[in-house]
Amino acid sequence: MKLFNTLTRKTEQFLPLNPPKVTFYSCGPTVYDYTHIGHLRTFVNNDLLKRTLEYAGFDVHHVMNITDVGHLTGDDDSGVDKLEKGAKKQNKSVWDIVQFFTEQFIQSIKRLNIVPPKELCKATDHITDMIELIQKLEKRGVTYQTDEAIYFDTSKFLNYGNLSHQKIDEKIVQARKEVYSDPNKRNPVDFALWFKCIGRFKKHVMRWKSPWGDGFPGWHIECSAMSMKYLGDTIDIHAGGIDHIPIHHENEIAQSEGATEKPFVKYWFHSAFLLVDNEKMSKSKNNFYTIDDLKNKGYDPISLRYLFLMTHYQKPLNFTWEALTAAQNGLNTLRQWAISLRDSSTRSNLYLEKLEKTVNYQKQISDAIFDNSQFPQALAVLYEMLKSNIPPVDKWDILMDFNHVSGLKLDDFHKVIIPQSVTLIAEKRNQARKRGDFDTADKLRDEISKLGFTVEDVTSGFILKK
Ligand SMILES: [Zn+2]
């Protein structure tokens, strides 16, 4: 199996430290607002990687954190506490906000058929672990204290900047642009391990006793503390969105390696961005979507998983309703195939030619998946295989294999299956509407309803329902 490693900028053979075991950490959500489809792209890509590792025979130990404290609006210690800001906005306590959005996150990943991590751990349950790690760093002489915080001294860590392939001077220039900075911070790229509840954080609600007085942890320290606690000093894979590379993950490496003097992570796995109609998602632009928004418009949440699967995880993905409609139709087609193949059980002796073909399809699909998660390519071969002349029973086996690794719930026969023939009529009707031929469109609508389905027009096309 091959994986692209952000650290080396190369696609490498994947060789875990202690096979068949694979230690896997992924950065979780900051639970101050709704989990949206941009976050979900990263979580689905991580899930596809995890399923791929298991498909390859590895035994994956997956840990994910829930950030419920300490994440400021600027990843580099600038701004205000996101969680307290969220609480103020909703006029609720910060603890209520954390609980509400944690539940919304868990519900969202469930809807997308994401396999839950073995450990889903909250930062606030690991304050002691974080304090101990900071003390370890203090003993090693890589921290300093100001009136406001305990900082990691990046000048003491030679490899700082290796992950983002940025020179420290470039990083300093970028960091200087930030609005807020502690006047006693020695270097703009140094980062807080612990904030004291004085000055700008005097009224901070979430606070714990510590050797440095009442305070709360900086954002980055939780991932180092939890990763090392559950998975050991060095792990195989650490995953997250590409926005985490320059600050969060760079800081995680510095803290962890600064404490242990061992490599922190062997392979870094990063998912590219999701755009909506070619723009960055934001509430002010009204293009901020959650999985419930999709569901309320009549889409099966799994159609979003299908859409993600169609674009390689390292490429930016542009979300449009048209693309989601196409994904929903693609998902329906595969489910239709699953229904038509499920009862095929007679396995006859194959001619050598067909046997070779079957083996070849299977191999092409798994080769694509094992080659740095080339799911779009695997999906293309899957369709080719379904249309080929290999026996139905073999098609079924290959389809179910793909179902397992892709998490598309193709064997969920309780889902309403829209026959291909109905989709075709609906497409014809859509075209008729577009050219203004409403008589034909109405006739085709009747045809669809005679077959037991209704067609609903949406801006991006149509949705079929039983
Ligand atoms: Zn993290």
TrEMBL record:
EC number: 6.1.1.16
Family: Belongs to the class-I aminoacyl-tRNA synthetase family.
UniProt motif ('KMSKS' region) ranges: 280-284
A Gene Ontology BP annotation from the UniProt entry: cysteinyl-tRNA aminoacylation
NCBIfam families referenced in this protein's UniProt entry, alphabetically: cysS
Known partners and oligomeric status: Monomer.
Subcellular location: Cytoplasm
Domain Cysteinyl-tRNA ligase anticodon binding positions: 428-457
Entry binding sites for Zn(2+): C27, C223, H248, E252
Requisite cofactors: Zn(2+)
Record motif 'HIGH' region, residues: 29-39
Gene Ontology terms for molecular function: ATP binding; cysteine-tRNA ligase activity; zinc ion binding
Primary site of residence: cytoplasm
Annotated ranges, domain tRNA synthetases class I catalytic: 15-328
Name listed for the protein in its UniProt record: Cysteine--tRNA ligase
GO cellular component terms attached to this protein's record: cytosol
UniProt keywords, alphabetically: Aminoacyl-tRNA synthetase, ATP-binding, Cytoplasm, Ligase, Metal-binding, Nucleotide-binding, Protein biosynthesis, Zinc
Annotated cofactor note: Binds 1 zinc ion per subunit.
Gene name of the encoded protein: cysS
Record field: catalytic activity: tRNA(Cys) + L-cysteine + ATP = L-cysteinyl-tRNA(Cys) + AMP + diphosphate
Class of this enzyme: ligase
Residues that hold ATP according to the record: K283
PANTHER family, per the entry: CYSTEINE--TRNA LIGASE, CYTOPLASMIC, CYSTEINYL-TRNA SYNTHETASE
